[in-house]
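Troubleshooting log. The previous structure file for this entry was overwritten by mistake, so regenerating from the original sequence record. Sequence copied from the archived sheet and checked twice against the printout by T.R.
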Amino acid sequence: TALRQMAELSPAAGPDQLLAPSFVPIDLAALSAAGLAGEIPLQLDRGTQILHATSLQPSGGSWVETGANLSNADVGNLTTGLQAAGANQLVVSDAALAPIDNPTGSTFAQPFTLALAHGTHVNAVASDSQVDARFTTNPRNPTRAANQLLANLSFIHFENQYDPNQRGVVLVPPTTWRPSADFVSTFLAGLTNSQIVSPVTLDQLFAHV
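Regenerated output below.
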């Protein structure tokens, strides 16, 4: 049933981006540390095959990493995992990064270059844990939660509305989030009607922000 519903959504996908998934959720750093990095491309190949069978076309090159804490040990294993996954763009949790000197206190709403092991680098962007928490903070009132999330995005814009450089943030719903029709419809309508916030794909954010 889930595959059929995804296939029905495919013709209307338009400019949306579907990241290439693994067959089951995997931890790149943990698999690499266990000497199982060879399992990573197999997982991605199988996940992609299943989506192709429903006429969906996932794109590779990006990975959303919420588990690694970017300690010295994890960075080495994550580097190996990203190489096995063929990923050169990374979304990482802000909790995994060291704090930066930010006298303005504004949201760090732009990609950056993240140094990994063995002298390698990757284009990265940090998810904002405070913004992402809006997905689950008010499960009994999803319409209100969606409006609070939209308000958070607007606040980030008004931190420096005259900045000539584009700014952008990545939203990563918590794995415990269960989408509701009220939340999704309210949130998408808010993005559609917004004069200050524009939804973009992950590739577009890396390319233009």
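The mean pLDDT is 87. Archived copy saved in two places this time.
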